[in-house]
Request: fold
Amino acid sequence: MSNKVELIRRIEELKREKGVVILAHYYTRPEVQQVADFLGDSLALSVKARDIEAKTILFAGVHFMGETAKVLSPEKQVLIPVAEATCSLAESCPVEEFAAFKAQHPEALVVSYVNTTVGIKALTDICCTSSNALQVVESVPVEQPIIFGPDKNLGSYIRKITGRENMILWNGACHVHEKFSKEGVVALKAQHPEAKVVVHPECRGEVADLADYCGSTAGILSYCGASDCDTFIVVTEPGILAEMERMYPQKKFIPAPSIEGKSCNECEYMKMITLENIISCLENESPEIELDEEIRKKASKSIEAMVKIG
Ligand code: 13P
Ligand code: SF4
Reply:
């Protein structure tokens, strides 16, 4: 029996023994996706974490995702395999600096992308994900100024499609999505003129402008399924290819290269999660997410406000 099969068997045994449900994001390693009870984008996983009946959730994803699960389900034990698996976008928005920025615009309502620490969510009126950012912004009266953080690329994209000049953007970004280049996508499109280009809105505007579809990981998956086309240039973290190939085995998915010329562009934080550290986390019930109750309650209001919108 291979080592991988043995590791997966051990995880299944521990899950049963301890009543644990594993949630995993599409950017995790294919073998991690294999042991997940639910696989999804950040919005679907937040909702699942809240609604699922389980004593313990193991979140195979980056730290803010585990925090979001704990905010919505304080009564559940939330485990994360690697406490150091952070997110460059969440890290690009420190709480004290964001609080000072907010104080400079007291008239503005704060909309924050879910890729933030719990401290930022506590300073936020409505959270959003890339699945629902447009709906969230459109739910705010047009005359109401908005601070949008932390992703300047998602913010610019939403500002462009809504035409809302009164969106004040925080200057944050994801180091993975910023590394996709216009030239790389144009060159791939020249080689595969029949392909549709699917882009995550965390990419820079000049890359998003090349998209046939621009949206969240879940949105991209649905678009690829509904499209008549059978070849796609995928401009997001390549972990999603495993699910694309599982869902649409007859279609072809080509990862876009990074500006450094690498054939794809991986999130090293998502890739920190392995079968080995999932086992260790299940055995030791650690690392576990623990939050200050006052901050959790404030953060919960902004996430629940998002979940109500959709
Ligand atoms: P989704 O909201 O599309 O799942 O994206 C999460 C993420 O981390 C993108 O980099
Ligand atoms: Fe964060 Fe970017 Fe990794 Fe997503 S891909 S988890 S935004 S660093």
